[in-house]
Amino acid sequence: MTRVALVTGGMGGLGEAVCIKLAALNYQVVTTYSPGNTKAAEWLADMEKQGFNFRAYPCDVADYDSAQQCVALIEKEIGPVDVLVNNAGITRDMTFKRMDKLNWDAVMSTNLDSVFNMTKPVCDGMVDRGWGRIINISSVNGQKGAFGQTNYSAAKAGMHGFTKALALEVARKGVTVNTISPGYIGTKMVMAIDAEVLNSKIIPQIPMARLGKPEEVAGLVAYLSSDEAAFLTGANIAINGGQHMS
Ligand code: CAA
Ligand code: NAP
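Above: inputs. Below: predicted complex with acetoacetyl-coenzyme A.
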């Protein structure tokens, strides 16, 4: 039996590593990309050259209707979603003094509303079939807060509240819901930070003195997606090189 794994934002740094890892474990991997992404076909072709048969659908995860339509199409064309990885996310960093409603709303809708928007159309099916995995990619900065990230830290902390509440509701139905909170991983999201701030303020806070690798997070997603992880639910698993221990 091939399970279907839906990874939002699979064309980004972390999402791509998750897609590759799950494909290597024989999941049928489906990803979403944002409607403005003009490189989707190129990415799919490149992945195909590497031997990966991914399917990709446009979806604005911040938009409820877009998410419902996207999942309906995936379930019609590919089949029911067994594993959902809520990975798509953005940053709009600025101090609170400069934070405006536009950048607050953009981060809340893309990083937090998206979890509702994408989980809503898949969760009942998982419950009915008696098996499912929902994995929410949060952040160390949702656990500890971060300078310049009132919007992002709030959204990422909110994701774990959602995880815990839904985990309770579906625990007896074979569906697990977990949060992963990565520390700083070497993707374009982190590379966008001013080099001076990254080197003088952030790396020194990481006991391992390096950024994490997307593959390291992907390995954890793979575990949470597996049958072996059936007893693990409602958890927030930190993977941050020792930067924050709770
Ligand atoms: N910790 C402590 N102090 C910080 C800081 C930090 N992380 N970031 C900036 N500062 C300090 C600066 O050193 C500076 O101090 P001085 O005034 O004493 O020189 C002061 O704050 C103002 O900084 P800027 O001059 O850079 O001010 P700005 O308004 O131009 O920019 C900022 C502010 C947008 C917050 C910018 O500093 C920044 O991008 N900081 C990094 C934010 C960050 O860590 N984002 C994480 C993105 S990756 C991610 O989010 C993935 C994940 O989940 C881990
Ligand atoms: P990334 O390379 O910038 O990828 C982000 C992905 O999100 C992109 O694939 C993008 O899709 C997608 N996306 C953004 N807005 C979207 C929208 N409205 N609708 C659909 N898709 C949208 O960043 P990343 O580092 O891989 O981050 C992935 C996740 O990990 C994020 O949730 C991030 O907050 C979290 N995280 C990252 C780090 C880190 O250090 N990198 C640490 C902790 C947590 P398109 O490419 O199609 O535009």
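The chain has nine helices and seven strands.
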